[in-house]
Amino acid sequence: MPKISAADVVEIHQVLGLFTHVMDNMELDALHLVVTEDVVIDPVGEGESDPEPIHGRETFRGLVALRTGAAADHHTLDPVVLVDEDGTVRARSRFLAVGPDGSVSNGEYRDVLRRTPEGWRISYRRAFHRKPLVVAPSAGLPSGAWGAHSGNVPTLS
Q1: How far apart are CA 98 and CA 123, in angstroms?
Q2: Deepest of 62, 108, 129, 148, by most Cβ within 10 A of its Cβ?
Q3: Does 112 have pLDDT greater than 90?
Q4: Number of alpha carbons in the 13 Å side-chain half-sphere of residue 91
């Protein structure tokens, strides 16, 4: 398995945490600190169908700029970094979203990260809503490349 350093893992955790601060606080000039220029954001849907993926940092910037006081605040939790045999770096983390009325939803982010000259950045993000006791893989439980196993969880030395 390709190696990444403990410093890489810390930087990736920093990017994952910073993402929600940048988005929820509408820090549009800081988007370059968390996502690549060609990022794909694959958002969760509210119901049967998902919205179309968002392609590119500038398109994403435009959508973030439309956020209102009715938008939820997001919290990134429990990030885990995974490394594929081909060197692809993935991260899984949980999120809690708190609405202005105090309602809470939860889910999982699945990210692909890429090392750029400026540091690690998210190049792909998919979000899944979760409910407790989800048991069907079709409901978004991790499998394949997204499942943690001894071959893709880096040792930090």
Answers
A1: 25
A2: 108
A3: yes
A4: 30
